[in-house]
Amino acid sequence: MTLAGEQQQEANSKQPTPEKVCGVLQGLSSIAADGSRGSLGQAAAVLLQHLHECGADTVILTAATPGSSVCVLAGCAGVGANTLQQQHQQLLLTDPRLSAALCSTQGEQQPYLYQTAAADELAPDWAALHKQHGLSSFLAMKVGGVGEAVGVMTLASLKPSAFMELWWDPLLSMLSSGLTPLLGHPLMAGMCKVAHELEQTRMLDYRAYTMLMLQRSTTLLESITGMQLVVRLGLLSRDGQWLVVQHVPASGTAAEEDGPAPAELQQKMLPARDTIFSEAIAAQAPRLVADTSVYSQTMARPSTDVFLGGDSEASLVVVPLQLGPRVPYKAALYVLHDKPGNFASFKRPICVLASILQLLLHKQLQEGGLLTGVWQDVNLQAEQQDSAQDKKSGPLEVPSFAQPSTASALVQMLQQQVRSNQQASQAKEAARGGYLEGHDGAQAAAARDEGAMELAVQETLSHPNIVRVFAYLMDMVEEAVSSGDSSSSSSIGAGSAWGSSGPMYSPALLRFRPATPEDFEAGVICNIMIMEFCEGGTLASAVRTGLLHEKDMLNGRTVVRVSMWKLLSILLDVVRSLEHVHRMSLLHCDLKPDNVLITTSPDSTLWLVAKLADFGLVKMMTNDRMYIRNKSVSGTITHLAPERFATGSRLTPAVDIYAFGMLMYEAYTRQRPFPNLHPASILQTVARGDRPEFPPGTPPPYRALAEACWAQEAEQRPRASDAVQQLQDMLARTNVPSLANRPRH
Q1: Orientation angle between helical segments 206-225 and 369-390, nearest 10 degrees
Q2: How far apart, in whole angstroms, are the C-alpha atoms of residue 511 and residue 518?
């Protein structure tokens, strides 16, 4: 047999049978098309398995937007694959001289690009593979229809003149059809489009680049998931001390593809410690907050980057970006959802997005342009604020950069939850005509960040028997003006106190200023509530001074007796406030006479009205559930229900009803419960079921209601609405002075 005949026989022996072709197509169709590089890596392995005996030693799959020279290395297998995957800069291909770019940008009538080391000047990436691994023949083919190519498949062989057989043409055509669903998946195709657009704007200023990246990323994720999502970018300073979180307001994420964005890039700077960002970077793994409302109440100190405001923040995940060892900066992707959830259904697209964005950011961060622009903005803002302070022109607004008010954003989120509870309560009241029933639910616990929960509740609740909050100021620093020199001021900090030696301070001369980054570092921040003035003081002081009691002479002796109509009027105010609080799915958790304020009211028979105050320990029952799990013991021990002492127990509105029973006892007897017991003994006494004793002569209905309120089992205690009805019945049977004869205080 001649040499030509032997070569022909060898070529025929490599030709795949129809069964082998069906096998490779079935292998491709069995791969889940999810747009990930993992699925395309599987596709490359399947192709190599079936094509190796046909002469292919390497398979490379590259995704690209039609006609674009920007490509993404989506998957590879065979000789040189490890080298390609380990070289970070080779995953995002932006050089138009590379093989995938050359093939992708060829005319529609040129579906192939073929080069050999012996006969051609190889494309730079092929030349590197030839030099490092000995690959000698290269064939690249567009994948997809004419004019609609979604990527490039490259085959490489160690042999010098491979892929010349005529049967390769129909085989490649069939392989193209099998690869199109994988390379053309909307997620991969969308990321290629984003990469193409960003590469075109890479030389612009960092604002334009970052804004386009966040806008397009948000649009892509929303199109893939069908959910309302927001994408943010977190960047750490070189020294690791400061975090900048960049985002585009919601009005700016829906910009038209070719039109200018209506909103500009927003940047917020905060200390990097105590952030979800720092946790994700340290663990090199995503960190999730599935429900920010529950999180805000569960964590003693929520991470400062969870509540930044500006977008709906019901849940979020922070994904660290792997930027490579030569990049001196750290970055992470924030994805926020407007509903609570664990992002399980979004995991794949978010991970793919993160993998592509880290490739795009790699060059920007490595070159330093992106971070240089960010920190120039930081320094500029600081200089402008210093200049403005020197000129005493007031705080300077810098729209594109702002020091965050985490507590303020948390307040806004909690206010939204309280209002949502209020709307749900009103709807259910209208539908069922009764009080909300209790049922099982999710956990929520006690702690909150810098009083944000208290501010949110008191500023949002509106009821005649709850102290009104007119306004609140977040992240302020207290200053005082010396009475001897009104032009001078000094911070009230460690070592200074009212009445101490030195300049005398008057409350009338107090003033506050917005906090600076240095104040955040020093920890001298305070939040201010502007509340209505209740001139009657607390219910505790009113009881001590005899407001609810009257003195009579009996057999020449002064006798103090309870004024039942006054007492019942005040208690009705208190329990009505509880009824409203519970309807809002809230627990006060610190009801006692010291937290009830008295003020005048011309509409009251008593001329006075009681108002519930101090929501510092308030808890929210989330997800429309009527209990929460107890995480810690807090409050006034004499007024804590038995279940408050057990970690993990269910807390329901009954804990406030128990405290109301104790308040009834104090208001009637003018004595504190268990006055002679140590706190540990009080706990044991309450656990045994022992309670204070009312004196002889206490009206039986009054005693019965108080004892029902402090029942050992929560289920045995009345609801606030029941207590309202019973107190109203008692008051109706009590002699009440006419309006003309009512007392004036």
Answers
A1: 110
A2: 19
The two three-digit tokens of residue 347, written as one number: 């995991």
Q: Do residues 156 and 60 lie in contact, with contact meaning Cβ atoms separated by under 8 Å?
A: yes
What DSSP string runs through 626-682? S-EE--S--S-GGG--GGGGSTT-EE-THHHHHHHHHHHHHHHHSS-SSTTS-HHHH
The fourth-level CATH superfamily of domain 537-733 is Transferase(Phosphotransferase) domain 1 (1.10.510.10)
Q: Compute φ and ψ for 50, nearest 5 degrees.
A: -90, -25
Which of 132, 177, 133, 154 has the alpha carbon at shortest distance from 75?
Answer: 154
Non-local (6+) Cβ contacts of 287 within 8 A are 276, 279, 280, 317, 318
Backbone angles phi, psi at 73, to 5 degrees: -70, 105
Tallying the residues shown for the chain, one arrives at 745
- Two domains, one topology: 11-185 and 202-249+264-367: yes
Q: Contact at 8 Å (CB) between 36 and 351?
A: yes
Residue 701 in contact with residue 668, Cβ under 8 Å? no
Task: Convert the pLDDT of each residue in 94-143 to its tens digit.
Answer: 888 999 999 988 887 888 999 999 989 999 999 999 999 999 999 999 99
Ramachandran category for residue 163: left, alpha or beta (phi over 0 → left; psi -120 to 50 → alpha): left
Q: In whole angstroms, give the CA distance from residue 136 to residue 79.
A: 12
Going across the sheet that includes 315-321, the strands are 287-289, 315-321, 331-337, 229-236, 242-247, 266-271, 401-402
Pairing status of strand 526-531 against strand 469-482: antiparallel
Q: With bands split at pLDDT 50, 70 and 90, how would you rate the model's confidence at 429?
A: very low
Residue 232, beta-bridge partner list = 334
Burial class (CB in 10 A: 0-12, 13-18, 19+), 548: buried
Which residues are paired to 143 by β-bridges? Answer: 151
Ramachandran bin of 325, using left for φ above 0, alpha for ψ from -120 to 50, beta for the remaining angles = alpha
pLDDT per residue over 369-398, tens digit each?
Answer: 555 555 555 554 544 444 444 444 333 333
Q: Please, what's the largest Cα pairwise distance for the chain?
A: 143
Domain extents in the chain:
11-185, 202-249+264-367, 537-733
Give the distance, in angstroms, between the CA of residue 137 and the centroid of all CA atoms in the same chain: 52
Question: What is the pLDDT at residue 620?
Answer: 79
- Domain made up of 202-249+264-367: CATH architecture: 2-Layer Sandwich (3.30)
Residue with tokens 């991470």: 303
* CA atoms within 13 Å, Cβ hemisphere of 593: 24
Superfamily name and number for 11-185? GAF domain (3.30.450.40)
Q: For the stretch 593-603, what's the b/e string if a residue is b when 16 or more beta carbons lie within 10 angstroms of its beta carbon?
A: bebbbbbebee
